[in-house]
Specification:
The structure holds 3 protein chains of 3 kinds. Chain A is α/β, with parallel strands linked by helices. Chain A is 34% helix and 31% strand. In chain A, the strands form 3 sheets. Chain A has a 6-stranded mixed β-sheet with strand order 6-7-8-3-9-10, sandwiched between helices. Chain A has a 4-stranded antiparallel β-sheet with strand order 2-1-4-5, with helices on one face. In chain A, strands 12-13-11-14 form a 4-stranded antiparallel β-sheet. In chain A, strand 1 and strand 2 form a beta hairpin. A two-stranded antiparallel ribbon of chain B has the order 1-2. Classes of the chains: A alpha/beta, B mainly alpha, C mainly alpha.
Chain lengths: 292, 126, 205
């Protein structure tokens, strides 16, 4: 059976503040999904509801058709990896691994040990005494080695330096290929992680802006570069996100699908047609617009 | 393999072109096994679905074929097909654009021909 | 549970030091192990109860275990801890009593042991009372921290309520039967409210 996660009209209010509002989407099958949103967009709240850490004010998350909240069959399949306060944890790293091993049926201790070596995480040191980067590494290791059918990483890389993040991305892909599962990565480091995603969901101010395959999202815009006059001609009556010019050369970011007629026209004018990056599209889509 | 991907074109397209380059340059022979999805995922650190999209386009174009449980292989005649395609692209993209620019500079087709001949001579002399 | 070992050890040390001191200054401090043990054990259970909320709940839910299972698991753990503490305190009491009589120290200490309360009445009854009290304190501790988990004002209200329950128990319940009924009833009420409070509780990520 293919795994299915479904958000049904999820809303969350906290102290009269709307945190997320009427979120609906379905993710089907094992894949890596990027959950993008600026700080405070509601990413952590949404993932908390999916992980059954809190009930929604309205609506519900279904895992394979069953409400996840207080449902042992669903909860044992979901792991929520996030930054935690470990100030008072006197346990050793290895003890934490033992605990995960006891409660997660698919936990692979050999893989966890291998990851600990790769991240240079000392297993005999106290959790509270780990540096911030090492704490992130510990959470990530437990998240990966647990091999839960639904694995949620909520900005799990926070505190990791660039080389450690690189290891994290590599391991997510490597382990996903060997043990396919549904992985959701929330992030605002988009340019670094966009290669990982098959699907993308963008949250903005508590609402779901879009949820699509990454390639489809990338087709929502394009870049035209070349002779300024020709570029202006083609960009006329189109939604231009950004313009850069240097001498007689102009480059514009256009939002909207590139239709064949325009493509031919652009080529005949010798214009270069390029793709936009996910980051560029994201920045545009989540811009707080004062004019409208 | 090309060491890095750029962000000018879709990634799956770059994967496709990379394999095509390997075939055209003769580094990937007909009936030999193409790089696996997992290899490409690990090498470029991109999602397997993206890699598969590129590879599947090659399968649809008849450049690669699948052997169940083994992987993907380069089809017979793939190199000739690709060379043909590229010649067309060469004409459309390079030659057409060259003539367009020549026209802008007031050069006739004969002038361009002369330029090509002299470039060729210089190349031979080296 | 490493800190429980420390707790009993320190308690024992304090007892020895205090007693040695009181003997030295000729019986001016009235303190026995069973008495000190009782109040210390109740405080131990109270703290254990308080600690059963935040960290434990997060730990359980993080590992994919429901609030329901957390609730019943912690309840069982509370009963077991109360049982173990009852056995430990009773054994100490027994051991000390025999040691005292064996060493022929009655002259100095009998008054205090007798005044200690629990050893004066029938031993088995006082053990039951001890067990029930330890349970009450565990669940009160859990109750209070569950209150604070929701909102600090609720926490304060529950602290006041708990103090009230303990005062009523100590001063108004004169017979063993009355005490037992009162303690069991209040523990049951606290347990019911706890389940209500933790049923849909939020775990902070």
């Amino acid at each position: 059976m293919t795994i299915q996660v479904k958000a049904e009209a999820i809303s969350l209010r906290k102290k009269n503040k709307q945190i997320v509002q009427n979120i609906n989407f379905t993710i089907e099958g094992n894949k890596i999904v990027g959950l993008l949103g600026r700080n405070g967009a509601g990413k952590t709240s949404l993932l908390s509801i999916l992980a059954a850490f809190r009930p929604a004010t309205n609506g519900r998350f279904l895992l394979n058709g069953e409400d996840v909240f207080e449902n042992p069959r669903a909860m044992e399949q979901i792991i929520f990896v996030r930054e935690r306060n470990v100030e008072y944890e006197t346990d050793k790293v290895s003890r934490w691994m033992d605990a995960a091993q006891q409660s997660r049926p698919n936990f692979d201790r050999a893989y966890a040990d291998e990851l600990a070596k790769r991240f240079r995480l000392p297993q005999d040191s106290q959790v509270a005494k780990l540096s911030r980067g090492m704490q992130s590494a510990l959470h990530v290791i437990i998240g990966l080695a647990s091999r839960a059918p639904v694995t949620l990483f909520d900005e799990a890389y926070l505190g990791m330096d660039a080389p450690a993040r690189e290891i994290f991305y590599e391991e997510v892909l490597r382990d996903f290929v060997e043990h396919p599962r549904l992985i959701i990565l929330s992030t605002h480091l988009i340019s670094e992680m966009d290669g990982l995603f098959e699907e993308v969901a963008i949250l903005h101010e508590g609402e779901l802006l879009l949820h699509e395959g990454k390639e489809e999202v990338l087709e929502r815009g394009y870049r035209l570069t070349g002779d300024a006059e020709a570029v202006d001609q083609l960009a006329e009556n189109k939604r231009v996100l950004k313009t850069e010019s240097l001498g007689g050369t102009k480059s514009v970011m256009v939002y909207g699908e590139l239709v064949e007629k325009d493509e031919r026209l652009a080529r005949s004018h010798g214009l270069e047609i390029g793709t936009l990056s996910l980051q560029e599209l994201f920045i545009h889509l989540t811009e707080v617009d004062d004019h409208e | 393999m090309r060491p890095t991907l750029d962000d000018k074109r879709p990634i799956f397209q770059q994967i496709r072109e990379m394999i095509e380059d390997e075939i055209v340059d003769g580094r990937l022979l007909e009936e030999s096994q193409a790089p696996s999805t997992n290899q490409l995922v690990a090498y470029y650190k991109i999602n397997p679905a993206t890699v598969l999209k590129g590879l599947n386009e090659l399968v649809d174009a008849g450049i690669l074929y699948k052997k169940r449980g083994v992987g993907m292989f380069v089809a017979k005649g793939a190199k000739a097909t690709l060379l043909n395609e590229r010649k067309q692209v060469f004409q459309e993209d390079y030659v057409a654009r060259m003539l367009q620019e020549a026209n802008r500079l007031g050069l006739s087709v004969e002038d361009v021909q002369q330029m090509i001949d002299s470039m060729k001579k210089r190349g031979d002399a080296k | 549970m490493t800190w429980s070992a420390w707790f009993v050890g320190i308690l024992f040390l304090i007892y020895i030091v205090t007693n040695a001191f009181s003997i030295a200054i000729n019986d001016s401090i009235s303190w026995t192990f069973i008495e000190g043990g009782l109040s210390s054990a109740t405080i131990f259970m109270l703290i254990t109860g308080i600690l059963s909320m935040g960290g434990f709940l997060t730990h359980y839910v993080s590992h994919g275990i429901t609030r329901r299972d957390y609730f019943y698991g912690t309840m069982l753990a509370g009963f077991s801890a109360a049982f173990v503490m009852t056995v430990i305190v009773s054994l100490w009491n027994l051991l000390l009593n025999s040691a005292i009589s064996w060493l022929n120290l009655e002259q100095n200490l009998t008054t205090r042991i007798i005044d200690g309360g629990l050893s004066t009445v029938d031993g088995s009854f006082s053990i039951i009372k001890l067990f029930l009290l330890l349970n009450l304190f565990f669940f009160l501790g859990w109750f209070i921290s569950a209150g604070f988990n929701r909102h600090w004002t609720l926490g304060v209200v529950l602290v006041i309520a708990s103090v009230f329950v303990v005062i009523v128990e100590a001063h108004l319940m004169t017979t063993l039967l009355a005490t037992s009924v009162f303690v069991v009833a209040s523990t049951a009420v606290v347990i019911l409210l706890l389940r209500k409070m933790t049923k849909r509780i939020e775990v902070k990520p």
